[in-house]
Every structure is written in structure tokens, then in C-alpha cells.
Design a protein that fits this description.
Mean pLDDT: 76
Helix content: under 10%
Shape: elongated
Largest sheet: 2 strands, antiparallel
Order of helices and strands: EE
Strand content: 25-35%
Distance between the termini: 65 Å
Low-confidence stretches: 85-91
Number of helices: 0
Strand order of the largest sheet: 1-2
Amino acid sequence: MIGGLLDDRVTESLSSVPGLSHIPILGALFKSRDVIKTKTELLVMVTPEAAYPLSAADPKPLPYMPKPFLPQPAAVSGQKPIAGANDKTAVEAPVRVAK
């Protein structure tokens, strides 16, 4: 599926030196005219991908992250790493045992 949006603009600006631009014949030397034409095109291309529904008993999938989203703090002594779906650097809170 491809969608597009076109934008064509023409901008004209006139500038002149006050007083001198009103002199007959020589006034044209003190005037300027600029015309700017712009064309912009925005394309949106979508690639469809088949998705299958999950049953109620299936665990909810986590999004795949090729790199960790936020840097994890260095492991503090007494903490164990958790095995996450995509990130092996997550840290679990320390377990305290009453003596």
C-alpha cells in the first residue's frame, strides 16, 4: 500500500527602496522581485505482515529489542541477574533472609 501527499507552492516577494522606486524609468533599478517554487512529496509505504491471534493460555510476547533500550546499572554485590526475553543484563533486587 502506498500513500502520497503532494505540496506545490509558489512564493513571490517584491521589495523596493522607498521613494527611489517611484521614479519613472530609473525606478526599476531600485526594485527586485523574487519567485520561489517548491515541490514536496511525502510517500508512505507499508509492508503488510500476517499476525495470528494468541490463545488465552499463551504468554504475552515481549517486543524484540536488538539493543537494550536504557543502559542497565552495573550489578551490585548481592544481586542476581534475571533471564529476560531479550535482555540478559536485567538485575533482580537482592533477597534478604531473616536470621
